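hey m, so remember when u said the C-alpha cells were messed up on ur end? i reran from scratch. heres the input so u can diff it against urs
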Amino acid sequence: MMPRLLRVSTKALGVESFQVALVPDNREETMAEISASIEIEQPLSTVFAFVSDLTNLPKWQDQVLDVQRGDEDPAPGVKYTQTVEMRGRKTETKGKFIAYEPDKVITVTNDGGPMKSTISYLFEGDDAKTTLTMERSIEVSGPLKLIAGMINKGAKKAAPEQLSALKKLLEGA
C-alpha cells in the first residue's frame, strides 16, 4: 500500500498556506463481518423456499424496495437487480447467486458501486423448525470510506432486525 500526497488548501479558513498530508492509498476496505442467527418455527423447506425467492426481500428487509430477476431458477451465476434505499437515497445494485444448495445454503453478492456485499444464508432444521444464520461482509471504497463507521453500525443493527422480521412474517405473528 503506497501512501499518496494530498494537498489541502486552508485558504477558505483565511490562511494563505498549504498543508501536505500522507494518506494511505487503500482503495478497498473491509467494513464489516456480521453474523446473526434465529430460530423459526417453520419447516426447513418452507423457510428455504421463501428466502431463496429474492423477490420476497422487500417483505422482511426494510431497505430493499424491489428485486427484479429473470425466469431462471436460483443457481450459481443467476443475476438479479435490486433497488435499495439508504439514508433517503435510492440505489440500484446488481447481484448474483454464487452458491445455492437446496435446504442448506444460499450465497449472493451485490455490487452497489463503492459498496459491495456478500451475504450467505445458512439453513439447519427439520419439519418443525429452522435455524437460519445470515453472514454478511461489506466492503466500501471511494468516498464511502468517510462514513464507514456509520455503515458498519447500521449493518450490525440491521441483521438481527431483518431476521426478526422474517421470523414474524413466516410464523404469522
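this time it looks ok to me. The first strand starts at residue 3 and ends at 9. if urs says something different then somethings off w ur setup not the seq
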